[in-house]
Amino acid sequence: MLAKQLLFLSSLIPILQAQETVLGVYIFHRHGDRTSKNFAPASLTDLGYYQVHASGEFYRNRYIDANASSMIFGISPDLVKNSQLNVQAPVDTVLQNSAAGFLQGLYPPVGTTLGTQTLANGTHVEAPLDGFQLIPVNAIASAASGANSENSAWLQGQSGCNNAIISSNNYFFSEEYMTELNKTLNFYHSVLPVINGTFTLAQDNFKNAYLIYDLVHVSMIHNTSIPSDYLLTPETVFQLQTLADNHEYNLAYNASEPIRAIAGSTLAAQIVQQLNATITGKSSSQIGIQFGAYGSFFSFFGLAQLPAVSVNFTGIIDYASSMTFELVTNATVTNTSYPSNDQISVRFLFSNGTASEHPLTPYPLFGQSETVLPWNTFVDQMNQFAIGNQADWCAQCGNSTGVCASTTSTGSSPISTGSSSSSSGGISKAVAGVIGAMVTLAVILGAEALIMAVAGLRLVNKKRLGGRASPEPVSAVAKA
């Protein structure tokens, strides 16, 4: 009988050894609910604060808590170790405050038991606010989002990348744009009574698709009364949202002009750099978090071929959405044994909206069929579009002033995976981020095409991320 039990237990050993371990993660997160961009400066609302805090709590329960479902190897579960976190947000009030709110959920106050320190003279000092934990958010001015991006009608101008700005502006001269502009003119004029306190008749068209939608969207969440609100039928609101989706995606990504997705290219490099730091440091720095704007999501989605997985990836993501890159292994991990490169993989997941309410779902990247990719494959694919050093950024952007004045690019510098047989794993650490001075670009407008009003309206049957076929019901009550 004992022999049979031992035989059974021995049969479980391969299963136990195959249990997945999360070595580290990178989370790119959108801000929570905010006031309208039409009335700068935009600010995070209480609802937005609630949303990002709830998302922080979700990720705590997934990765950090002692009973976490996928606890990160070596992570401190209660008292934060700032060396284990790398948190960034652009110089933007909405994004900085969103990051701070998220961190309060990720590492909540620890109470008087853990939040009390005894001094050499025997005095007990309790931390304020029930052991509130202070976690720094590094302010960055990067092409991934840009300073004060939430006060800008379009984010590309904040990138400072000349060629990206030119590429985005080219969209306004494309046949696709002109067709949509003409076709939707009557539709936009039909909702003018709703928005005429902010937009004139001349501004009420597809060119301002996002700003018009943003005004209506924010108003439906926060305003108890809206002028001529009877015009805002579910079909009309859905059409405003779909047109805004179309407008913003085309400004953020174009397959024939990759430079338009500069935000996604620099973000890709930052992701690989952080995950590499986790590997080379043997999980001494496990978590990378960056808060950014929807345009960066769009750019990365396009570059990573996610619209081929679902057309939903061409829709504007909801407030407090997040995409996550998990660094995982099935090898045994201990304080003295760390997996090699060929034993490490990456899983991509996305949540459209606060992760506590909307499933964090895995999706395949780069046209692959699997949702978990070997580390070396992941890095090779990211290298196809990642821009991770200043010289390459300046060359690709065509910038020659500011920090690019003395920069001479030596050509493309792909990120190397290094030797897969090394016990430490990892790759050579690239220069982190691109910090550039803002560059003003004057765009010479050509003669405007004659706008011909076309009767009728085409509703696009386009589902939103998260499986919704129509805009999410809005309420003044926080339901994040």
TrEMBL record:
Residues 1-18 form the signal peptide. Belongs to the histidine acid phosphatase family. One of its GO terms (molecular function) is phosphatase activity. The chain crosses the membrane at residues 430-460. InterPro entries: His_Pase_clade-2 (IPR000560), His_PPase_superfam (IPR029033), Histidine_acid_phosphatase (IPR050645). Coiled coil: none annotated. PANTHER family: ACID PHOSPHATASE-RELATED, PHOSPHOGLYCERATE MUTASE-LIKE PROTEIN. The keyword Transmembrane applies. It comes from Hyaloscypha hepaticicola. This is Histidine acid phosphatase-like protein. Keywords: Membrane, Signal, Transmembrane, Transmembrane helix. SUPFAM superfamilies: Phosphoglycerate mutase-like.
